[in-house]
Amino acid sequence: MAKRVALVLGSGGARGIAHVGVIRELLKRGYEITAISGASMGALIGGVWAAGKLDEYCEWAEKLAYLDMIRLLDVSLLDPGMIKGDKLFDRIRQIVGDRRIEDLPVPYTAVAVSLTARKEVWFQRGDLITAIRASCAIPSLFKPVKMHDQLLVDGAVLNPLPLAPAGAALADLVIAVNVLGEPEPDFDRQETPDEEEGALFTGLLNRWVPKQKNEKKRLEKSMGLLDVSNQSMELMQQSLTRYKMAGYVPDILVTVPKNICQFYEFHRFKEVVVTGQERAAAALDEWEANQGIQHLLEADAECEG
């Protein structure tokens, strides 16, 4: 049975924590990840894993609460992005170390977008944390990365599920993880009293954004500018993902519904990881069962021949 995997990890904010569960399920079953590519949160999780620091990252990240995340936000109203990101990515560098992509044990690709050249940029060499930071630079939220006269932002702007790099990998199959799947009723939930701090996160960010002068429309009343920007980005990513998969069809697609959590709910680390692992197990069970059936059919054909 095929065991070498080219793994493709999609964007999706905190939903991308599900990638941790997918990786754990693959390794548990004895699959070998021989290449990894990702956009935004997918680039972060993939890069941390490729650097051999996923356990250390998880040990830190699963303890984060709302207020911890807010303390990591170095807000600047003078930069082209509300959050500079220095504190957050300095902490990630402390975990991962100063690693170069070409020195990683497996081929790794982080996808960003150059606003200057108006095209995708694939990081396959250079400083790992810089590549991750560029791939995660959500427009209007995080400060873009300036490099070689280029202004780089979130790879999800053009390629939220970067399947193309997997085509050149030495692998038996391509597994892609889309964490912006259609919402499912099982994940709809009511906000509980102990989650009131959740409103603090988006509330503070929305206050840092200049207010809309015209708030007459119902949508503008119910949603802050950050919410509108986020939902617009998600809609674009969902459309682009369908487009990309029409040209590059993965052997296995693991889909996680987008209502598993909100894009900022990093405090729900453990439950999102569990869901990612469950979805990976279901997809792998189905694929392995089909492989078994195919093997039996081929054996019968040989006997009849």
From TrEMBL:
PNPLA domain location: 7-167
Domain of life assignment: Bacteria
UniProt KW keywords: Hydrolase, Lipid degradation, Lipid metabolism
Lineage of origin: Bacteria, Pseudomonadati, Pseudomonadota, Gammaproteobacteria, Oceanospirillales
Span(s) of short sequence motif GXSXG: 38-42
Motif DGA/G, residue range(s) on this chain: 154-156
Species for this entry: Endozoicomonas montiporae
Protein name: PNPLA domain-containing protein
PANTHER family named in the record: NEUROPATHY TARGET ESTERASE/SWISS CHEESE D.MELANOGASTER (PTHR14226), NTE FAMILY PROTEIN RSSA (PTHR14226:SF76)
